[in-house]
Amino acid sequence: MILLSYAGVSQNLIKGIVTEPDSVTPMPFVYVINCETGLGQMSDGNGKFSIAAGDKDSIIFSFVGYTRLKLPASKLYKGLYKECTVVMEETAFKLNQVVVSDFKLKPYEKDYMKRVIKGSKISLINAAQSPISALYMQFSQKGKEQRKLAAIFEEIFIQEEVAKKFNAETLRKLTGDDKIDFERFRKYCYYLSNEYILKHNGYELYDRVMDCYYRWKEEKR
């Protein structure tokens, strides 16, 4: 969708499919990035992708909740007419449980994610300026896939901002409880939403955290 080639270097077009850990189920919306160029794309609805890379390049495959893979392009390239298979590895983190401090995003990955989000915003409102692009994004399968991926990336950015203000380490320091389960606590304190955390600072935020913690302890959670 976003990538094809860069000049001055001998390249191959790597084609393949990304699968779930069972090695069979196709995995859509995985983003695939060439580490050397910073360019990439996402796997389509059938888990397929294609990316240009030199023999010495490395390719990153990444999706929230799965281990980020970094593989040599030379091992992925199977020739003009063959596809490689990339099997993702599941981690303990799911999208609604992301601990962003453990999911380090490189600058070029953030730039790519922002481009996807920006590209997904094209709508019929600006059809007068770019009618073909607007219609394409509104009704095409790739447009739908990009909007789904953009929603995932937007959630990652939200989680990243939330984690800067409130995370497992912050909770342990506030409560003095080194054994508290951060994810269980967040689910228990349903009113301590991402929106609330982002809109409040200092005393207001941490007072609400401690209020919830005291009730947590009273109920022997």
Identify the CATH homologous superfamily of the largest domain: Carboxypeptidase-like, regulatory domain
The SS-based structural class is alpha+beta
Biggest sheet layout: 4 strands, antiparallel
Number of contiguous helices: 8
The CATH architecture of the largest domain comes to: Sandwich
Rounded mean pLDDT score:
78
* Helix share bin: 40-55%
Q: What's the CATH class of the largest domain, please?
A: Mainly Beta
Which strands sit side by side, in order, in the main sheet? 3-2-5-7
Q: Please provide the ordered H/E string of secondary-structure elements.
A: EEEEEEEHEEHHHHHHH
| Spatial extent as radius of gyration | 21 Å
How many structural domains are formed by the residues? Answer: 3
What's the short story on this structure?
With 221 residues, the protein is α+β, with helices and mostly antiparallel strands.
Which helices and strands appear, and what pairs or packs with what?
Layout: E1 12-19, E2 31-34, E3 40-42, E4 48-53, E5 58-62, E6 66-67, E7 69-72, H1 73-76, E8 84-87, E9 89-90, H2 107-120, H3 131-139, H4 141-165, H5 168-175, H6 182-188, H7 194-199, H8 202-218
Parallel strand pairs: 1-8
Antiparallel strand pairs: 1-4, 2-3, 2-5, 5-7, 6-9
Helix pairs in contact: 2-4, 3-4
List keywords for this structure.
221 residues; alpha+beta; Immunoglobulin-like; 3 domains; four-stranded antiparallel β-sheet; three-stranded mixed β-sheet; 8 helices; 9 strands; disordered N terminus
